[in-house]
Amino acid sequence: MAAVLIALSLRRTVALTIAYLVTGTVATYLYTITVLGIPALFPSSNVFLVTLPKLALVMIGGAGVSARAGVLWSSTAFVLAEAVTVYAATQTEVPYGADVFTISTYLFLVSVLLLTVFVRREWSVQIALHRAMQTDQTRLLRHELDLRTLALGQDTTLQQLVALARAHPGPLSANLAGSIRDTLQTLRGTDWLTDADALSVEPHGGTDAWLTSAVYAAIERSRDRGLVVEVTGDRAALGRLSPASDRELSLAVQQCLVNVILHSGIVAAEVVIESEPSSISLMVMDAGRGFTESETGADRLGLRQAVRRRIERLGGSVSILTRPGAGTSVMLSVPVAIEEPGGHAEPTKQPEQTETPDPERVAQ
Predict the structure, then answer these.
(1) Which one, of 347, 232, 241, lies nearest residue 285 by Cα?
(2) What is the pLDDT of residues 128-175, one digit of tens each?
(3) Is the distance from CB of 70 to CB of 14 less than 8 angstroms?
(4) What is the rounded distance in angstroms from the CA atom of residue 336 to the CA atom of residue 278?
(5) Roughly how many angstroms between the first and final C-alpha of the chain, as a whole number?
(6) Which listed residue, 60, 134, 165, 243, has the most CB atoms within 10 A of its CB?
């Protein structure tokens, strides 16, 4: 048994396992019939000394190539060991007794093996779930990348094409040339792939919030391209926006103003800023030719990708009021965190705004 066990430990195969069972069964029978042949010393078959080869035989289950195979081999060994013990006891006329040592060892070993099967199954399920989550996250990341790519095309290439189309013949102005250089740098780089929070600076509060906001910069770029933009309302409220919301809202406003340049037939627009306890709204209005939203072509991606989906990803909403010949009004509403007196952001509560909107109109 020891020789076969050494060979089995070096190479776990079915043939060696069967050889161990056969050799162990024969050895157990010879050992048992020899010991029980001395009835004066061993009056029953359940004496511990008689159980030693049976224990060695049952433990073969621990050498199985898998937990399930181990249960099978251990059960087979237990049955064979008990069978030869009964046969040896019958031949020596010694009373047979089921020994607790072999039974306890067998039950303990089988319990451990079955527990191993269960744990491995649970682990396999967890791995499968983890892989499924990774696949789903990869799909979402790819979808987000597609949306950012489409929006980037609207924010860069289309914007510069509009500016070039409206530029006067001759050398480019310094503002337009600088804007094109910035666009080319954006297209060559990878900063647009990263989170907006990592690229933005927290807006200042008070009066400077307007001049340092991305919305102000977007409106100024539209003015550089020949559009007359009038801004009214609570401009300082833009300081309540997070960096990501400020950036995304500015790009949506910029696309709305580009749409005015491209489709309204006029060169003037108005931006109204309103502040609510839990949100900030901007309305971009023009008195141009208007349109029917349901009849816009599939190539009109600006309103869908650069405006509506961009705002909806922030948890906001977009409302469009327009009809042919009656101009267009686009309402952009984004949620904001509400500052409590202790400095914690609370999205559902906020003291009433006491700040009076600045009635001054920005110079066109």
Answers:
(1) 232
(2) 777 777 777 788 777 777 766 766 676 667 667 767 776 778 787 776
(3) no
(4) 6
(5) 99
(6) 60
| pLDDT per residue as tens digits for the range 175-201 | 667 667 767 776 776 655 555 444 445
Per-residue buried b or exposed e for 243-279, using 16+ beta carbons within 10 Å of the residue's own CB: bbbbbbbbbbbbbbbbbbbebbeeeebbbbbbbeeeb
Split at pLDDT 50, 70, 90, the class of 228 is: very high
Please compute, for residue 198, the number of CA atoms within 13 A of its CA located in the half-sphere on the CB side.
Answer: 6
- What is d(CA 69, CA 57) in angstroms, rounded to the nearest whole number? 15
Tokens of 169: 């013949």
Tokens of 341: 């007196």
DSSP strand pairing (268-275 vs 279-286): antiparallel
At position 236, the amino acid (one-letter code) is: A
Global pTM value: 0.48
For residues 75 and 69, what is the distance between their CA atoms, to the nearest angstrom? 10
Residues making up the chain, counted from first to last: 364
